[in-house]
């Protein structure tokens, strides 16, 4: 048998063996394009943090984790979130999301959440497990949680902020030597996309040097259309010749929504500005008493006007009008010095 004949015989034997194997085990020959023998894997692509329910002391943080899968199916997948204080390093909250089986390739978003206190900053550590084995991890830092507005105080209605138009405008409606009736106009703006619900407007008028409440008033702020500004006007009556802070606050179901401040300068000798401390001046408590006084208190038995040091102002030591002996002595000394210089 020559070499050519031997090769042909060997090739025929191989073809016969392959045909027999295919008949005996039909799954032995499989197109490699029809299967992916890579082991299953899952990774974190991105983590998005957004505010959830915001309460008075705590806030919920919503966590959206984008997972990318490739290869065969991955079973028993869980995602664990830990919120750790940025300054203290202490564990604040921990939650686990049961994902189950991840298959099909591509990306999917797994939603979770943690609860933290509305103070400081936090480090959010996210870890992906498969069958209890750590597969991927990512850390996200969150700060400024205290700036989140609680849901019960979240309102798009507030006092107008303007560089020219006054938020609190005060004018004198009536006045005499004892009292002054003030008209207070306050601007309210709706910055939302829908008409607002009615709100309560409360106004306090405080004497500047003592913080004693001279008068107060309440008004209802009716519906304000979206993007519009309304003006609410109320009146108060206060003792004349004093300076006042005008404090205004918006309330919704006894929840403070917004606050602002203006001033009313009725003392021609002193003036004040909002959020500014001024020189201490004389203050008489009885001018701000709410009840009516007796005839004796309003008559001859009224105590003499006193200065800040408790001494009588405008009377001499013997009860007669004048400057008093101390001022007279100073005048004599000054006159003697002048006469000596002229000599």
Catalogue the unreliable spans: 277-323
Main pleated sheet: 4 strands, antiparallel
Strand tally, please? 15
User: Helicity range of the residues?
Assistant: 10-25%
Which range does the strand content fall in? over 45%
What is the string of SSEs from the N terminus onward?
HEEEEEEEEEEEEEEEHH
What class would the helix/strand composition place it in?
mainly beta
Structure description:
With 343 residues, the chain is mainly beta. Helices cover 13% and strands 45% of the residues. The chain is built from 3 helices and 15 strands. The model is unreliable at 277-323 (pLDDT under 50).
Brief synopsis:
The protein is mostly beta strands.
Topology at a glance:
Elements: H1 3-24, E1 41-54, E2 58-70, E3 74-85, E4 91-102, E5 106-117, E6 122-130, E7 133-142, E8 157-159, E9 168-175, E10 179-190, E11 199-207, E12 213-221, E13 229-239, E14 243-252, E15 255-265, H2 295-298, H3 325-342
Antiparallel strand pairs: 1-2, 2-5, 3-4, 3-6, 6-7, 8-10, 9-10, 10-13, 11-12, 11-14, 14-15
